[in-house]
């Protein structure tokens, strides 16, 4: 059976040695096992838990006295954009490297870019050396012990790429500290305890830090998911969780607003 849970109960009923049945259900390598399922659920839970981390900046109206609110800055300030951009970058590098290697397999510079060979028992090609190889995650935790240099360079690449892409997205998306300060100023809102002129400095201290740290944590979660053997890829799981959580937040916000309108109408 392909399903991890169905296979677990099937092995319990079929095998006379229940300990071996449980061990096989936890560790079988050809199909999804219970360890993969638990790792996937664990990554889901950690990402959802970290989504709640935020800094609430108190703001007040410069026009109406007594009107106060808060401006939340999430730990994942740039959401799932760092991992999406990193995935797009890696996909383009892999595509170009594979095309060049098929066309010029004996060229030294092309080999430095990536050497591609079919994986054991599969027709799918994977990089075995070169730049593309060090941009791919280890296939298992055992492979990290066999090739620690590959693992170290991959971790450095992932964390650096996610952090830099997260910072870059601030300027591209218009969600940087200068843009937020301008938006608050247009709404005639100021940070409580700060002058209008120093609002940008306070936002510059918090927003880039949240974007950088959030990007690094997303990279760590993606690496952890790949090493733990989570079903799918670490990138795919992070994208799924963040998208679902954003939809949930939007639904909850709209539901709260409609509830407020209903109460006001009564």
Biggest sheet overview: 3 strands, antiparallel
Structural category = mainly alpha
Number of strands: 5
Helicity, as a percent range? 55-70%
Determine Rg (CA atoms, Å). 24 Å
Number of helices: 11
Mean pLDDT: 85
SSE pattern, N- to C-terminal: HHHEEHHEEHHHHEHH
Shape: flat
Q: How much of the polypeptide forms β-strand, as a percent range?
A: 5-15%
Stretches where pLDDT is under 50 for at least 5 consecutive residues are 261-266
The end-to-end distance, rounded to whole angstroms, is: 56 Å
The main sheet orders its strands as: 2-1-5
In short:
With 266 residues, the chain is mainly alpha-helical. 66% of the residues lie in helices and 10% in strands.
Per-chain topology:
Blueprint: H1 4-14, H2 18-27, H3 34-51, E1 54-61, E2 68-74, H4 81-103, H5 108-113, E3 115-118, E4 125-129, H6 131-134, H7 141-146, H8 148-173, H9 177-186, E5 189-191, H10 199-228, H11 234-265
Antiparallel strand pairs: 1-2, 1-5, 3-4
Helix pairs in contact: 1-2, 3-10, 3-11, 4-8, 8-10, 9-10, 10-11
Q: What features would you highlight for this structure?
A:
266 residues; mainly alpha; three-stranded antiparallel sheet; two-stranded antiparallel sheet; 11 helices; 10% strand
Describe this structure in words.
There is one protein chain. The longest helix has 32 residues, at 234-265. Helices cover 66% and strands 10% of the residues. With 266 residues, the chain is mainly alpha-helical. The protein contains eleven helices and five strands, in the order H-H-H-E-E-H-H-E-E-H-H-H-H-E-H-H. The chain has helices at residues 4-14, 18-27, 34-51, 81-103, 108-113, 131-134, 141-146, 148-173, 177-186, 199-228, 234-265, and strands at residues 54-61, 68-74, 115-118, 125-129, 189-191.
